[in-house]
Q: What sequence folds into this?
């Protein structure tokens, strides 16, 4: 029976129903004034219940419940359990403060600006870093229809005003206190990233081989136990019991001694908490996603022709109703499983399959944990660590990097000191964003994948030493290419108009100019300055080398003419012209500047200044004046 398009329903045909149980939304306080309990169902799949009946001032409760239901409802601004809990805590702080006043406002109508000012002063003194957040959250709640009609204009104006800057400087630590290590926020260098990726793949391969060994022993015990030794049969029997019940054997003695043995048994069939760090880091690196997305990977997926896998992932902080995105990851060949995002994702599903079945979770990441601290045992020791909260389990990344057989170290510092590599999701994400931007040639619209171009540049690329060094290399190469193109244009123009420039260094005199190849009369005129033009001198204005006619080109084209004469007396004017050309960069695009001024600039830098001594150039720089001829040489409307 067809389930999509025309013909999917009709007489005698049952309509296709969604999978799972039907969810009936509980009654909301907005529709029932007597109900003061808000049931929350977030976009991230997490649920919660907020009981306004626990708040002081009973006459406030119905209005608070109605407004909070709107704030956390489908069209509200708090659509995750963590953000809803934060808003709930801000509201609770206000209500507890109001209840402790000598004359508390018994109803929402009794709230005044004095009450809010007192709350602001109290929070600024006790918690100055969160007072602004509290007031903004209360304002966002009180402007909703559920409670806004009850708030007086005076109190509402107080909430709408600009809040003072309550940020305070951190107090200096005592000299005797231990200084916490600074957490880097920039990405890894090429060497650091290569070492990190190699370590992640090595540990993931070890985890894969460990569970594969346990699964192979279990298979042999179930299919051909007679081929096993007595010790292997006993171990296989225990693994078979674990596979069915999820119960990992316990051992007598102190927990510190029994726990490693329990973890070793569980690790033969299940992922453990220690396995999460390398698996999640490698998945985040290959998928080029942040840690939050990787923690919430779903188990549901679709394999496309055995070449790619399609997954619907969560991307937070993208605005209302834009939380989910369908991505496609390459699987690759079997021998490249740990080099593709699709291969690692399917491996993660395979390794966590037994724990996922036992805890009945829809998330990809499911593990076994020792249940003493959580007060659970047996089957309940299997759980999805990030189902209730993204902070459900602390990932000890520094300990993983330091406790490996070959600890991960950062690049040597200037003094040669080697320190442990700081491993975080943020640094890894930055590193992958930088590498993708480099692959795209720095084109931000193509490089922006899970963020906007502005976020990509501001939070990942800006200030990163790897991307800065690469950008400098690209810019340097581009400048070299532009300079070479300008120099080539100058040489071609000069070849058509006399082939060489006459550049005479040293003292300017008729004798020196005659020795340089000028006839005595022309040398005398040039030495007296009678042949000077804009920035140079012209030995024959009436006969251009290319046309044998009077010269009709601009003064900038003199630098590509065989009649051009440059002496030491012209250096101050040429240096002033270089400054004027540099100032034009602010008014023209890069392409326009090189097209208009590049050949003249290249001629001065390469063919003229290089033929004078450094002392002559330094002396001319001291006598350099501001150039005024460039504006007269060009038509103003062309700029």
A:
């Amino acid at each position: 029976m067809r389930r999509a398009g025309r013909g999917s329903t009709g007489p005698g045909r049952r309509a296709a129903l969604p999978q799972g149980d039907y969810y009936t939304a509980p009654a909301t306080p907005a529709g029932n004034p007597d109900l003061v309990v808000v049931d929350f169902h977030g976009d991230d799949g997490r649920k919660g219940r907020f009981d306004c009946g626990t708040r002081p001032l009973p006459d406030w409760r119905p209005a608070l419940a109605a407004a909070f239901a709107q704030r956390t409802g489908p069209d509200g601004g708090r659509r995750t359990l963590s953000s809803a809990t934060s808003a709930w805590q801000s509201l609770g702080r206000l209500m507890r403060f109001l209840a402790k006043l000598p004359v508390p406002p018994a109803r929402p109508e009794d709230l005044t600006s004095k009450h809010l000012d007192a709350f602001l002063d109290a929070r600024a003194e006790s918690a100055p870093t969160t007072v602004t957040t509290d007031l903004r959250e209360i304002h966002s709640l009180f402007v909703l229809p559920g409670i806004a009609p009850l708030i007086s204009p005076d109190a509402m104006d107080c909430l709408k005003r600009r809040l003072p800057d309550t940020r305070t400087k951190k107090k200096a630590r005592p000299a005797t206190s231990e200084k916490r290590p600074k957490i880097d926020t920039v990405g890894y260098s090429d060497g650091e990233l290569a070492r990190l990726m190699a370590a992640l793949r090595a540990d993931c391969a070890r985890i894969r081989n460990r569970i594969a060994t346990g699964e192979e022993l279990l298979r042999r015990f179930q299919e051909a136990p007679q081929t096993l030794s007595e010790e292997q049969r006993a171990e296989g029997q225990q693994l078979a019991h674990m596979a069915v019940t999820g119960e990992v054997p316990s051992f007598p003695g102190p927990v510190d001694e029994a726990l490693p043995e329990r973890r070793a048994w569980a690790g033969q069939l299940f992922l453990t908490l220690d396995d999460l760090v390398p698996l999640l880091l490698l998945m985040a690196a290959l998928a080029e996603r942040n840690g939050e997305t990787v923690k919430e990977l779903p188990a549901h997926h679709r394999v496309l022709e055995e070449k790619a896998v399609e997954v619907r992932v969560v991307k937070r902080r993208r605005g209302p109703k834009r939380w989910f995105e369908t991505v496609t990851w390459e699987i690759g060949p079997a021998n490249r499983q740990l080099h593709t995002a699709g291969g690692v994702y399917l491996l993660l599903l395979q390794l966590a399959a037994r724990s996922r079945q036992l805890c009945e979770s829809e998330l990809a990441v499911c593990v076994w944990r020792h249940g003493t601290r959580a007060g659970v045992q047996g089957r309940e020791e299997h759980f999805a660590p990030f189902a209730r909260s993204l902070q459900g389990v602390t990932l000890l990344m520094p300990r993983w990097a330091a406790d490996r057989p070959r600890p991960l170290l950062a690049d040597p510092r200037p003094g040669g000191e080697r320190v442990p590599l700081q491993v975080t999701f943020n640094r890894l994400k930055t590193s992958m964003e930088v590498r993708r931007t480099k692959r795209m040639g720095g084109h931000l619209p193509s490089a922006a994948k899970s963020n906007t171009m502005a976020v990509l540049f501001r939070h990942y690329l800006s200030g990163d030493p790897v991307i800065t060094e690469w950008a400098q290399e690209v810019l340097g190469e581009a400048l070299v290419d532009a300079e070479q193109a300008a120099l080539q244009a100058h040489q071609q123009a000069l070849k058509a108009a006399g082939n060489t420039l006459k550049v005479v260094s040293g003292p300017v005199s008729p004798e020196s100019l005659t020795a340089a190849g000028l006839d005595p009369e022309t040398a005398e005129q040039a030495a007296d300055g009678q042949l000077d033009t804009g920035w140079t001198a012209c030995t024959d204005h009436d006969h251009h080398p290319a046309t044998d006619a009077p010269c009709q080109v601009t003064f900038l084209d003199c630098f590509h003419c065989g009649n051009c004469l440059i002496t030491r007396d012209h250096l101050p004017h040429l240096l002033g012209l270089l400054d004027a050309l540099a100032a034009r960069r602010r008014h023209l695009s890069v392409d326009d500047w090189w097209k208009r001024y590049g050949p003249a600039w290249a001629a001065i830098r390469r063919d003229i200044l290089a033929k004078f001594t450094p002392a002559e150039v330094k002396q001319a720089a001291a006598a350099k004046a501001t150039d005024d001829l460039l504006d007269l040489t060009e038509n103003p409307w062309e700029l």
